[in-house]
Task: inverse folding
């Protein structure tokens, strides 16, 4: 979702995935293309000459003879295009668990002569080429590769087929989402004239203050800060509370917009830092202080951070809030890794068998979220009791969750849930990370909202510090990004009013018809489904599977 600001480590994964997946493979002397018993090869020197002055020698001619003039020029440009990769940071990233997993996957396609996984040679050639004047180039990468390279046609064909299947499935999902939400909107009762209702996109009537609390959980030897928004002069007997969990390599301040919005309607909002997976941890990793993008113990520590914050609010309730805080029904919002966090708090349990199965499937590189989820396999395989019964409702924004929990783990979630997707999210694709999860949730009060054209993160709001860090690692391709804060704030407020504060007057704002109303003007389009559309979604998935006759490809998505 564009409103959310920083799932930066997974964004880096996305950068490297897109860069490395496009690498045509070569060798120190020859590039060998294999497909079954068929073997074709071309000398690297032929490509060097072609890149230098456009010469097509007899070794290269069979491959380019049917190319148009435009295609030939594009191929030549591809060989010499410079990418300003920082070699030190690139090396550190590729030495992380996530970086190594990417290389292992790529090494199945780009192999050392004889079919040996080329992950180590890949890493060395990428880093060495990044040291070249002007930065990494494809030709430089080929020249630095230590042996002849085999390009596995069979693996790449499978990768291409799998990606094509996913693209078709994503398109189907987006189209069906629009269709089903329109059907829900027509059946919404009562029909509402939203122009006559309060505009929830606007700030509420309460002013608020902002505080930073320094906390120390001595049981876990864990110190972190909490950003707290407190409404002033709130007359309510019971003040509602919402906690917000930031995403991987993010920080509490990134969610100030939604926190301020809720505070203006009388909510106390607490946003804790997760020190093992925040922006500082990423910056330290890129500086060489950690090997990995995040500490795998964060799968346990993050939910415990939220519970500790609620404990702290209970300790301060009487003295600082006059005993007005309603801490028996707390709302929780989380983005990406924070989405995992709030679902765990809602009762979802890790299914290590499901996770191990999914992590062992081919072509897992096509789901960047799975690269993060598979790190949970480093935890002791036991039951983790992370549910906090004080949590009354959760909103998961682009949540990382599907393989971690599976149908068994998500069936344990029985409180109200709102899942949010972006139709163009390449980090936690809706077709993987929210679609099945919506169906598997055990809650009878569940909603799924999709922003048409929405991505995973609002790159326009990346702070300058981390932006420069990402630019140091590689190309920062910033997608078009219109602010959708106000629209999401309206949905988040309505959801918490109904399911955290118990105010059913806000139920009309959770109808599909409100999504159409709020998207009338030029800007982002929101569509929302409820549990009423579950059977239609299942029917559409089964029909798509039958029509495409893609049992092998479907295995990645079952």
Result:
């Amino acid at each position: 979702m564009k409103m959310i600001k920083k799932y930066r480590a997974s964004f880096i994964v996305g950068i490297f995935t897109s860069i490395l997946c496009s690498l045509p493979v070569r060798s120190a002397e020859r590039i060998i293309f294999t497909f079954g018993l068929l073997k074709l090869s071309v000398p690297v020197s032929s490509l060097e000459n072609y890149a230098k002055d456009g010469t097509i020698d007899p070794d290269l001619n069979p491959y380019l003879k049917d190319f148009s003039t435009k295609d030939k020029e594009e191929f030549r440009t591809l060989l010499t295009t410079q990418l300003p990769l920082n070699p030190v940071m690139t090396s550190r990233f590729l030495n992380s668990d996530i970086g190594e997993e990417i290389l292992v996957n790529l090494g199945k396609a780009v192999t050392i002569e004889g079919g040996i996984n080329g992950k180590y040679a890949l890493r060395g050639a990428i880093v060495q080429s990044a040291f070249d004047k002007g930065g990494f180039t494809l030709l430089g990468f080929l020249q630095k590769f230590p042996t002849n390279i085999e390009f596995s046609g069979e693996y790449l064909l499978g990768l291409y087929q799998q990606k094509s299947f996913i693209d078709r499935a994503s398109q189907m999902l987006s189209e069906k989402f629009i269709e089903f939400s329109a059907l829900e909107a027509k059946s919404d009762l009562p029909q509402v004239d939203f122009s006559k209702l309060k505009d929830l996109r606007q700030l509420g009537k309460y002013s608020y203050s902002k505080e930073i609390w320094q906390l120390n959980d001595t049981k876990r030897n864990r110190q972190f800060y909490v950003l707290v928004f407190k409404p002033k002069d709130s007359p309510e007997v019971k003040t509602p509370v919402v906690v917000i969990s930031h995403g991987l390599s993010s920080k509490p301040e990134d969610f100030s917009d939604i926190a301020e919005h809720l505070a203006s309607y009388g909510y106390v909002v607490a946003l804790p830092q997760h020190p093992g997976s925040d922006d500082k941890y990423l910056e330290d990793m890129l500086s060489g202080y950690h090997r990995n993008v995040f500490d795998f113990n964060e799968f346990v520590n993050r939910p415990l951070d939220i519970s500790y914050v609620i404990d702290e609010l209970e300790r301060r309730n009487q003295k600082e809030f006059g005993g007005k805080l309603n801490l028996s029904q707390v709302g929780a919002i989380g983005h990406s890794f924070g989405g995992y966090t709030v679902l765990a708090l809602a009762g979802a349990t890790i299914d290590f068998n499901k996770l191990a199965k999914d992590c062992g499937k081919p072509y897992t590189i096509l789901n960047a979220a799975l690269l993060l989820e598979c790190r949970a396999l480093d935890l002791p395989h036991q039951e983790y009791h992370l549910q906090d019964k004080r949590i009354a409702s959760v909103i998961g924004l682009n949540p990382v969750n599907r393989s971690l929990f599976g149908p068994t783990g998500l069936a344990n979630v029985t409180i109200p849930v709102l899942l949010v997707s972006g139709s163009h999210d390449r980090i936690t694709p809706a077709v993987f990370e929210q679609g099945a999860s919506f169906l598997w949730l055990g809650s009878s009060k569940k909603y799924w909202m999709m922003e048409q054209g929405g991505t995973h993160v609002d790159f326009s709001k990346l702070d300058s510090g981390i932006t420069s860090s990402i630019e140091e690692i590689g190309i920062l391709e910033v997608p078009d990004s219109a602010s959708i804060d106000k629209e999401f704030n309206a949905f988040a407020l309505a959801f918490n009013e109904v399911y955290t504060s118990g105010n059913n007057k806000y139920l009309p704002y959770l109808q599909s018809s409100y999504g159409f109303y709020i998207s009338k003007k030029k800007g982002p389009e929101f569509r929302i489904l409820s549990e009423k559309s579950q059977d239609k979604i299942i029917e559409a998935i089964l029909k798509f599977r039958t029509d495409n006759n893609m049992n092998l490809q479907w295995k990645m998505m079952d």
Notes: Residues 153-187 form the longest helix (35 residues).
